[in-house]
Amino acid sequence: MMKPTSANERIVFLDIVRGIAILGILLVNMTFYSSSLQAIQMQIEQWPGIWDQAVKMLQRIFVDGKFMAMFSFLFGYGMILFKERAEQKGNRFGRLYARRLLALLVFGLIHGILIWFGDILVHYALLGFILLLFHKRRPRTLLIWAIALLLLLPAVLVATGAPATPKLSPETAARVQKMIARDQLIYGSGTFADIGRQRFGDWVMSFFNQITFYPQILGLFLLGAYFAKRRVLHDIRAHAGLLRKLCWWAGGFGLITNIAAVSLPDQPAFAGAKSLFTVLGVLLGSPLLGLGYIALVALWFKRSPQHSPLSLFAPVGRMAFTNYILQSLVCTLLFYGYGLGWYGKVGPAAGLLLALAVFGAQMVWSRLWFKRFSIGPLEWLWRGFTYWNNPSASATKSAG
To answer: Could you give the C-alpha distances from 366 to 28, 208, 296, 376, in angstroms and in order?
Structure first.
């Protein structure tokens, strides 16, 4: 008779998924570190070379939105795990988790305003307080809310016929080009103060842009909480059938819609279909493909949990918070004027290689770190804010 996944295996598996998600997030964020926010939002093509276009196409199909969806799913899953541990120790979950979210909010503000404008932590903290309202709800209720929220934005866009790709007039395009040139000058060669002012403006713009996607993020939080209450990833073997279905159906739908969105030609005859598949691919297909990735990793890990090569990702995921911030520190030093000033000089192909190099270094340093310490440095601080006591003691309490 097969034994269920042990507690240690389960923790390692979740760390593996977090580590893989951190890699995918870096692949996406590399564009935002090195390019003008205006160029990205308005979809101004800056790298027409064949290799850059190939990497960009593959990233749109397999990377964009998928790994952030995985991370959002894990955030919701993690809330239920945190609740279970808190209640086992006789702690008041609501108070502890609210303190944890407040600490995350502070870290996110520091990250977004002082390091890199594309921070996601502030949004996770704010939405985490809404997620907290659902911690007592039954799995079925969580699932209904998750599906409704994930369908909300794509349904509105499809119903209203809103175009997925902005169409710019020549005058608007000219203004955008001037803004791109200004970003290039400030980020690429400006002083720390100049970059700080520009970064704050971009952070404000990014903050309000991200609010549009709050239903998607909260839906993924709730979906993760549903899976945690169903204990799907607590016992992978017992839920292998469900995970296979997710791999085929969720992953398949996500892959098809994303391929269609990228492959359909930009011609008037295909405009309606391309807009439809772009909306479905970005807002629905990407989260589903991210869910398919989690299921695929789980099924692979189940085959040999003690000797899986996937375990190489575990140290990075074990301190995902630290590594997420570290990516911003390293990459802004590479691209911004107070560092090497590579801003605007690295296209998608070179950015892919650079991202892999940075992540490879993170794999090495994370492994070395855990030979001496039991918790990541920012995780240590975060735990200290949460428990208002010695983080080392808190780490001991929750070990295993």
So the answer is: 21, 34, 24, 8
